[in-house]
Amino acid sequence: MKLFTAACLLLLSSPTTFGLYKDEAGLNDFLLSSAGHGYHGVNYAQIVDDYTVITSSVSSNPNDILGGGGSGCHVAGRDINTGSLQWRRNVCTSEEDDDSLHSIYTSKSSGIIYTNDKENIVKGWNGTDGSFLFDYASSASTDALSFPRIWGTEDAVTKTTSVLSTSMHNQKKGGDIIRFYHPTTGQPLSFFTDDDQEVYYLNTNDLLQKAFSENVDKSSFMLGLVTLDTNQIGVLVGYASSSNDGDSSLTSFSQMALVQLSFQSKTNLKIDSFSPINNGSGDANTMILTSSLQSQVLSANQLSLVAISSDKKAIVLSSGQKWNVDTALIDSIPFINSNYVQVSSVGGVQTLLSYNNNEVKEVLADSAIGFCPEYNWLVTSSSIYSVNPQTAVATKVKGGDDMGKIDIDSNDSVKDVFILSCSDSDVKAMITTFGGTTQTVSISKGTENVEILSMWSAEEALGSITSTIMLDESHPPAGASSKDSATTDDDIEDEDEEIALQSLSFSSRIQSQIKSLQKFALSGGFLQSSFVTSLFSSSPKKKERDYAFGFAKVAVLLSEPLSKIIAIDTANSGKQIWSMGLNRDAEWHKILHGGPNGKTLMDVTVGAHSHEVLVLSYVPSDVEAVAGNIEWKCMDGTRGKTYTSSTSTSVSSPVAQIIPLHSPASVGHVHDSGGCRQMALLLHEDDTLTVVPDTAYSRSAALNAMNKSNGGKNGMYVHTVDKSMGKFRTVNVLPEEGGGSSSVIARATTVGETTFNPSTEKIVNVVYPQRGEVIQSPASILGDDSLLLKYLNPHLAVVVTVATDELMADVGNNFYKALGGDAGEVKKPKKKPLGVTKPGEEAPAAAVEATPPPTLFINLMDTVSGQILYRASHAHRDTGSSSPGSSNNIPVVFTENWIIYAFANARTRRTDIGVLSLHEGMIDKHGITAFASPEQEMLFSSFESAKPIVLSKTYGISKTVTAIGVTTSKGGISMKQVLLATNGDQIISLDKRFLDPRRPSGELKESEKKEGLMKYSPILPIVSLRTPSYTQTVESVRSIASTAAYVESQSLILAYGGPDIFFTRLAPSKGFDLLPDDFNRSLLALVVIGLLIVMNTVKKMGNKKMVKMGWT
């Protein structure tokens, strides 16, 4: 009876058991979509239909004319009240790359968005839903054209867009090519010149030559478009010159002209007149342009200020009996009332000027100004008010001095302010920061002050993530002891990581069981326990289950273009936990976690990741003789708490390589001495090594890693890659005598070097094996029971090189010369039909096709010896684009002994996927017995050991591949899946067996069938059921990261690099360790209780029988 009672109590008092059901696997995914402005932030914002905000990465500043229309390809629409992304479109015609350009114009009246890209293709989009309306491609070649811009003008009477115009700069002729289009249909408009010739484009050089009756050898640009009358428009053009500093700027007013055109019909324009602008001396440069040529100055004479020069002269368009252009001193402009106008300088400074009684005053000058001229609302960054740059302010420049403050992240500062809508009582403004944060606020006039309400905010940095680290999100145990009252909050936060790691120890689990028993006895017993079990899928229980199974991860994301770090909670649909801005002047940023190999990423005593990360930023010096500084932060990656930091660690030369170092959790905190458990050893270009942080403990840890007795038989080896010079160099690190007297603690000596001739090959990618990858077996068991040994050298790197344009041109010229033609001229030799000969001649042999030259090289490098272990080459690489998945971006993944890469094949018009598997050799099935074993060397040498045996195969796939990843599991038991991100905005998965280079071309043998090999097929299938992203759109993925959960069958993946971030959970080998879908926990409990009852009954019966037999 005692045994039965104890068993029942133990069963009923045990805490809720967390089980992972099969139907839950894969449901914990989320998609974070940004507006697509991650590399430059929001530089343009305009509202349409009162509900949708249009954003773009281009700039609407008219002084950016000489800098082009802007970078990037995405235009997006957000709900003005909630900030939710309504739509996003890639407006570029060609695939997006680093040189992508476009310009944008939004018609408030019609709600149509017009864009123009570097291919000079005009497109129209519906501003409400982003639907495509029309496009028109120019027939002229755009090879020499740049700076795409688009202009539009609103008719003041009809309140509609009267005409659309584009301009692109002709680099050969030095002028802008101007075209006109119908704003509704996109149809190009023709116009008649003075000699009645019909043309479809104008050149600004020709217009200025006619205006001034002279030919000036300078570049010229279109400067603006304005409505002059109901049927008349004006185009402002001008020459460009260079300032004393060498920067391009707009020229003086005497070199600008207004070209007046009138509508002859709906499809024709006519040039009416040329109005040159003369100011006499002609030496005043145009330092400031208005942000729009529409009337912004409120006056009875309806004057429109066009530009202001450095000597306070202005171009004014006045509306008398006819439109004309004048040059006047600002002081002489006859304003009746006090008026304000916002103008923009060439240097990017925004200026607000006021005019009253013929007197001009500068109200303020700042880097960001949002001004509503109708109601005099002003929103600006805070430098004019002498407050922190992390604060924006809002006020009215008329009717009081009340001011409200808008707080921005302490590590960020205001970049731009856009007025979305305004009235006399309130205004809605969008504030953008240099770190990519977009915040929309509602500002209203209160009784005593300006009231500000934050409507929503968005992080554009999510669209430019360059690297990520996945950390376990731990939590304090239920049995954690209370802190002493004298312990500070900082001490408590400092020890949270240790408490979380202790929660998985044996003693902590025993304490948790005891507390659960006490809770059971005092609070309802089995009934409450059953009730809690019924709520297993509730949010608190789900979070606790995510902790138990290792699904709760914190993804620390780094955006180098916007110098920002963002941490998101993968167990809470990607909710942002913390963010931090970095130095925008830095040349690069890096996040370090773990040591030089994956073993140090996890504390083996508790099985959880360490939370400390080290953030490095390299800030180059303005002085050429000085290298620069290293800024670093030691912080908790799960909470964003900074333990220690430094902004002034000077270096002797730029950093060539970074070696991460990490001390185990048992060492304890070293923050009091300014140290960090996560450290970095920096190899500089002058072959010296320094450690960050530079503390006694860090020096000791670095020297211990370099010591031959602890760091390996031959010490520490490091390598560097110089892409510009094509050099792959390996060095041996030797400590300085006495540990180093200065910041230098070691020096490097060259061990080996491989040079790829930069005139023929260019290094485009360097890839290393997966860090922390668990390899279950060093050999593969074949169908005949023999062993195929894997080549598992940890000191490997894959260097991808491509043939340079100079080499390809030289190869092509030599090929055509061999055919009897001139260099660069394509000529085909004359051919006779096969079998046709003259009498007495022998029949010519069949022509042998020349082997095409290779254009892509996959080089397997040893990072200790510096030698090439294997080199594979491919021809027909598509060189027509530099977008992800083609040309110079070759995605590669290195997992176990496999190398998988993809490139666009210009000949087959598809993507080729190459696979290399590395092996040491084979062991016969009788090679390992009780009496025999193969001869194997116990030591491996990068200099003397044999090179790997490489098996290779190439497959084709119908979609362009932009990134490659592979699943990771806790013990390496689950079968791996290869993940491919495609240009179709999907992520597809392939069983690794599809890519096996050992797939036979003929019929399968019995042993091959046992092994699970499939017959070779050149085309890889795309199975819809194996699409982890299902119907989600994941655009322009550049990297796929994976990490393991505590459940062997589950793998967590994160796709990033484009406008979207996608996270999901996969089961590559299905749920072999999961509970079935119809698992009945109540029935299991009843069966166990029933068995205990049966056991107790049988025991009693046996005891009675034994007693009875004893008396008989």
From TrEMBL:
One of its GO terms (cellular component) is EMC complex. It is found in: Endoplasmic reticulum membrane. Residues 1-19 form the signal peptide. GO terms for biological process: protein folding in endoplasmic reticulum. Component of the ER membrane protein complex (EMC). Belongs to the EMC1 family. It comes from Ditylum brightwellii. Residues 895-1111 form the ER membrane protein complex subunit 1 C-terminal domain. Keywords: Endoplasmic reticulum, Glycoprotein, Membrane, Signal, Transmembrane, Transmembrane helix. This is ER membrane protein complex subunit 1. SUPFAM superfamilies: Quinoprotein alcohol dehydrogenase-like. The chain crosses the membrane at residues 1079-1098. Residues 473-493, 827-848 are annotated as: Disordered. Its main location: endoplasmic reticulum. It holds the Pfam family EMC1_C. It is a single-pass type I membrane protein. InterPro entries: EMC1 (IPR026895), EMC1_C (IPR011678), Quinoprotein_ADH-like_sf (IPR011047).
